[in-house]
Amino acid sequence: MAGNMEKAARTFSEVIGAGESEQVREFSGFDVATQWADMPDYALAAFPSGPGQSGQLLKQADSAWLSRPRSIIFAMRDDTAHGPLYLSQKVTPRQASGVLPQASRQNRVFTLTVSILVIGFISIVGWLLLWHVSRPMTALRAWTHSLDNDKLSDPVPDFSYPELNEMAELIRNSLSSVQQAVDRERRFLRHASHELRTPISTIRSNIELHRKLTQTREKLADEQSIVDRIDRASLTMKHLTETLLWLNHEPDTPLQSEAVDLPALIRELAGEMLYLLAGKPVTMEISTTPLSCTVPLVPARIILGNLIRNAYQHCWEGTVVIEQQGSRISISNPVELEGAIGSTKTAANTGYGLGLELTTKLSQQIGWHYTSTRHDNLHCVTVEIGARLDN
Q1: Where does a domain end: 42, 75, 95?
Q2: For the packed helices 355-366 and 297-313, what is the interaxial angle rounded to 10 degrees?
Q3: What is the per-residue pLDDT across 113-162, written as a single tens digit (0 to 9) for each?
Q4: Fewer beta carbons within 10 Å, N or C terminal of the chain?
């Protein structure tokens, strides 16, 4: 607008001359006068004092906040060779050029096209960058999930970035340290368990030999008590050794199953645990039905032995009921009284501490269904044998 006004003023001065403009007149779409007082009323109302210096463009728009103006008034002074000229123009929507909407539409189409192309280009570049960065991360994740004992000794693959290679090396070293610790623990348990079997067998065989040798003479009460304590401790050590050996059992190794007379096994285990009831007013009831099944013998002995041992150990008075009906075995006993005399001492003498947690784990591993409930003052456990029944 300032350029158009300046051009119109220079053209007016050259063609018409300042002397011919004592009154306001219209030239090239602008109102032109040599005196500001001669300008139209809209210009005087908008700018009472007028432009103060040459080249100063004044603008007034009667618009509210964030709305289009109804009109825009421009005014400017230009000092020509023939003297100063004042120009003004009032722009309204009716005076808007018909070329402007077309130019505006063309500009919007061009802007929209360029914007779409730029957004598409940025999206493609971003996707390529993300793919280039995420591909090594995905490979690292897949490699981490595939790590096992065999792959821990293999060299770390190249993941394109030094940071990812360092992270992969740290992961492998950490897993290698954990695996080495687990292997050391397994070797210790395996070796200790195997080494313990020989002295335990020696202790138990010598106890039996001592009992046979003392059958011909009268035994003192203190001597018999000592022998019984040694016998109980050796039996507990035997069960613990079997449990440790089972804990070292490799998960991928198939379990060896064999035909078992279930009622005979239950009565045998119940008889081995009778020492836990010594000195307590506790009776025992065993009810079985004939059944022969094929089960893993060692886990079966550990599970049933743990359940019977817990029932005997935590029962201080009343009756322990062991019932076997087909493949279902239930063991119930009165709940141990809080602060009962001798409870801590008995638990310490047995040396048993693996508890029912191991029973639950073994039951799940060999496919037996195990439940434990407590009603009022009665604790009941039930085992459903999942095995092939022979009859």
Answers
A1: 95
A2: 150
A3: 899 999 999 999 999 888 888 888 888 888 888 887 777 777 888 888 88
A4: C
